[in-house]
Amino acid sequence: MKTTLPSGKAPHLDTARLYWVRPETFIETPAALALLTADERAQHQRFIPPGKRREYLVARVLARTVLGNALNCAPESVHFTTNPWGRPEVEGLHFNLTHTDGLVTLLLSEHHEVGVDTELLTRAPKLLELGPNVFAPNELKDLTALPADRRAQRAVTLWTLKESYIKARGMGLALALDGFAFRFTAEGLQLEVEPGLNDDGARWQFQTLTFGPHLISTAIHHPPGDPVTLELLEARL
Ligand SMILES: CC(C)(COP(=O)(O)OP(=O)(O)OC[C@H]1O[C@@H](n2cnc3c(N)ncnc32)[C@H](O)[C@@H]1OP(=O)(O)O)[C@@H](O)C(=O)NCCC(=O)NCCS
């Protein structure tokens, strides 16, 4: 299997790496399937839509290839555990995966807790319809105040930021979506967190990238004043 991933125990201290793959470019081979555990192969077989099945396989191969490379071990011997909220984890590194129609990405950091989320921009109408079920009151207020032609982009930006945060916290939807709000202020993006969620919004670094028809948002936990560089890398699996 050909890979262009940088090798060795990387990334170093202040770099996080965002690896991306367009799943339609991935060719399913026996060698790729052989990287999966028996459980993963069974799960792969359970997906009926071919696109979802391919997405699942690409995500597994991407995770095993990137993490094996960073840990200096064979991809098939990377050992995953699962936190109480279902997040896959490996010892010695922080990573998070996201996949949706047409894009699979993995965010990797040696030292910082990370979360990543991607969505198609065409998801905007659904998100705006869900309104208070997915956004905090201040986010809704800001959305409503925007000119109509900017609401779609803002809705998907907010949603991917929110998902990147709940994924970096490792809790997924166990974190109340209305308990924290992203605000676009003159000083930049700010995260307001309710005291009950036991966090300091200033200790996070967020970025949103437009990537063809998708948005990708990343959340990186880092000490204030010590920004982490985000490297974007195409993974050729
Ligand atoms: C896991 C969760 C946080 C993200 O799910 P998602 O946005 O559907 O899917 P993503 O592709 O972004 O992320 C899935 C990956 O996150 C990882 N993950 C699973 N549980 C996680 C958790 N608790 N914390 C962080 N990451 C987690 C897994 O690697 C998973 O991929 P895998 O199942 O192939 O291993 C999920 O609980 C969630 O938020 N679902 C929201 C779905 C929703 O309500 N959509 C409506 C909006 S239109």
Structure description:
The chain has 237 residues and is α+β, with helices and mostly antiparallel strands. It has one domain: Ribosomal Protein L22, Chain A, CATH 3.90.470. Helix content is 30%, strand content 28%. The protein is built from six helices and eleven strands. Strands 4-5-1-11 form a four-stranded mixed β-sheet, covered by helices on one side. Strand 7 (180-185) and strand 8 (188-193) form a beta hairpin. Helix 2 (38-46) runs antiparallel to helix 3 and helix 4 packs across helix 6 (148-168). The radius of gyration is 18 Å and the shape is globular. Mean pLDDT is 93; it is low at 1-5. Coenzyme A binds at residues 59, 85-88, 96-99, 117, 123, 126-127, 134, 163, 166-167, 170-173.
Summarize the structure.
With 237 residues, this protein is an alpha+beta fold. The protein has a single domain (15-234), classed as Alpha-Beta Complex (Ribosomal Protein L22, Chain A).
